[in-house]
Amino acid sequence: MRTAIKLLPVAALGLALAACGTTVTERAATGALGGAVVGGAVSGDVEGAAVGAAIGGVAGAATADRD
Length: 67
Hints:
Elements: H1 2-17, H2 24-43, H3 46-62
Helix pairs in contact: 1-2, 2-3
């Protein structure tokens, strides 16, 4: 339980970064970076970071432009 509480701010930061950028490529890149950080922190290994990067990249690319 304590681990989940410690990782909550990391997850929130990752979600906040998922939609940073003005183009689809920028949003995908920042989403992948945030996802890798959160995935690596949660799982503690490279595989978790890779999965987090993939999920974050897709989530970042899927976000709509705010124009």
